[in-house]
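user: can you give me the structure for this one chain? tokens are fine.
assistant: on it. calling the predictor now.
[tool input]
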Amino acid sequence: MRVSLRWIANIRTATTPCLLAGFVAASLLASPAQAKTLRYASQDDPQTVDPHSANLLVTSRVVSQIYEPLVWRDDKWKPIPWLATSWQAVNDKTWRFKLRDGVKFHDGATLSADDVVFSTERALSPTSQMRTAIQGIVAAKKIDALTVEFQLAEPNPALLSHLTNFRIMNKAWAEKNNAARPQDYKAKEDTFSARNANGTGAFKLVEWSPDVRVRMVRHDDWWGFPAKMGTTNLTEVVMLPIKSPATRLAALVSGEVDIVIDPPTQDVQRLKRAPHLKVLEGNEIRVQYLAFDMHRDELVYGSEKQKNPFKDIRVRQAVYHAVDIDIIKNKVMRGMARPTGTMVTPEVIGYDASVDKRLPYDLAKAKKLLAEAGYPKGFDVTLDCGNNQPAADICQAVAVMLNQAGIRVKPNIVVQSAFFPKIEKYDTSFYLLSWGGGVTADSAYTLNLLLHSVGQKGEGDFNMGRWVNKDVDALIKLIRSESDVKKRDANIREALALTARELPVIPLHQQRIPWVMKKNVDAWFSPVNTVYFYKTRLN
């Protein structure tokens, strides 16, 4: 028996055809000689602008415009020199980086080795979620004003990939403003660096009014302009958090915004036919998944208080078999998803198609497994989800599917600003989240943060189910330091295969992302679903 489509087919608010039809008339009012201000809309608002506080995409979309790494990526997503112009491995545990001369922070200070040493120490702080961006590094040492040496506890063959997510902060500015350590995001701490920024990037923050707008202006002293690293002609960017999908598109149609990065999936085909719009799309290096509390002996948010059903592999398998991934793909995602059986995508180093296989949808088997596990009548549980789309719709669709198997799911749709602190404090029994390993594009990043047991050195920072498997931990330790590519890939494959058998998480799909914009906007589609403004133009 298949899940009824009536409710799922109507869980999204359709954009009316007249809204798109009105675009032609509205666009005639826009002057091609407008100032070079890009008006950008999405459903999300950044949670902080501290570069070492929260490892979240909604934050990175802003922070990455302001703060820069030593190593960045080209159009093919390969590491290239950025704030560092060159590097060398002195030995297996020592790397030396030469910094770019004359780089200016937004307050006019000049980048030096002191700033890199300070940023390293800051990223290693207990309140930092960016420790994995400097995986293996235990200390940084200034050699001279433009040379820094990193000491590693163990070799890291993927160090350059990790460093693309490590952003440099000005030491003097941070210390002056009592921001020498990162904001404690989990505790909802308010600090100067959470609301103000001073980086070296192509754009500098001049205003952040939470839930209203982020405004950035061009950093005319950006080193990348004379070096021709950027192609932008923008003088200002205004980022608007607009929660309603229909309202975001209405703003685009009326000319109030120039680009929307998260249009409703059901409207994408219509948007492609609009004469004054264009759609860029591509696969995001991100996986949507379900995860369980694997730590407690009861369901804090559920009916079972004597034991935790999710500790039984048969229950986790039942959840997997009860999810009809084709309905989610076709009815919720409107085809803009690739079902997956693993937590890394084909674009990531270490991906192996042999472990990218899903358990089949089988409602009868799901019920049988629940009965075998001692739950012939099922049980009640709350599924925590963020209120962003498509997560909220997926959450409700999964609830319908699991209810048919006997697991009575209550969706708990939580506003994004409260959702992340909630699950990061392990205040959940069952949750839906997405994971992006795109900036580093290496499987070790995903394995270490998502599937390693919770540790003190950036291990298991996003293992909110607190799953523990000693064999996986041992494999991750080997992966982090193995320089032989074949051996490393074999260890990654084994770790992913073991995870697929144990199911601490249930992968759903890799999303295909559409951006819709006016025809006069030129943007580079990045696989991490971030518009990089230094490569964006208004024509």
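assistant: here you go. The CA atoms of residues 387 and 415 lie 5 Å apart. The first strand starts at residue 37 and ends at 42.
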